[in-house]
Amino acid sequence: MATRAVEVVYRGIFQRTLARNIVRNIVFAARKDGKIGTAFGRYSDSPERNGIPAKQFAIVADTALELEESLAVYEATAVDVTINVDDTLCKGLESWAWYGLQPINELTKPGGTLIVTSRQDADSLIEDIHQKDTAYDLAIIPSTVSFSGLWVYKDDHTDMRVLGALCKVCPELVSLEAMLETIQEQTGSDTKVASLQRAHDRTATRPVEPGEGNSETPFSFDMPGWKTMEEGLVIRAIGEGGGFRGGETGYTPTRNETFKKWSTRSMRPVINFDTCIKCTLCWLQCPDTCFDVTPDGLYDANMEACCGCGVCESVCPVPDCVTMVGEPEFNDNNSQWDAWTADKDGYKKWMTVLVEKQKSETRTHGFHHVGGYAEEINTTEEA
Predict the structure, then answer these.
(1) How far apart are CA 273 and CA 233, in angstroms?
(2) How do beta strands 79-84 and 53-61 pair?
(3) How many domains does the structure of the chain reveal?
(4) What is the DSSP letter of 306?
(5) What's the mean pLDDT when you consider all of the chain?
């Protein structure tokens, strides 16, 4: 039996059209190779939402019977290729609710390939990707992250690049010839066909050995069994919180231990505590209550609760007091206030470098309004 599976991991809503284009063209091309396939979505344990990690799958088999057998499960348990269209998801997927954190390569088969769109190099990505007991390959498509939005689609050829790379790393799934013919039929664009061909020709893989990568154990939670579940519907209330980290001053809200929102974020706020005027706006307007009030009246963003929405940056009246910085710059969720109080001069130098670098880059949260793509079309990198 020769059944092949691909998963596309993407940011919910922002990259839905991108993911859909990838999986549907895989199935169309497979038909030209005389195979049969299907594509479907998986929106974690809740409806697809802004930025929440989600998945779409493409399953291709030689015969209809083999395909039916493969689809007897709700979700593929192993895939030949994992396609990650946002490199910040290399840190893992927390959208799976009480299941905890799922490594980006959790389903990638031994000897399979993880394809990532990123401006980072292999060593930087592997530093975030959790270790596996078996070897696999890493293929990087040099590209900015292709964010769009619910009402717009950033047609910057990211899907073409991904499909070209896929044909290179897994020709058993679909041939390059079939994919080129499919894209010509589906889009009528010689430019997109050329983008696909160039991506195929330029794609190179880097072997990742067993035990290489992030050594941290992904967090998980014990789910209640049927003997421990209570009668009826029970929703436990969240406590009102108390003093800053258990102290008598300041304030830390009580948070749900099993809902860590940090993998939703592609950017995080960096705080300039020296220029903060204590206006309270970030604390009041944060939709996820991620700010703690410190004993000195400043506001420390809890990086396990922050989803990276950027509201705090938008409402802050002080220039550069709150700056959203790309998530790849960070390797932990440690307190910035702790770092600032421990070494104010060192923190200022660290913060200044990050903020200046962010200003020179094009990474955004994605388009949030109709016309957002049109405003940036002139600066969009051509494939």
Answers:
(1) 44
(2) unpaired
(3) 2
(4) -
(5) 89
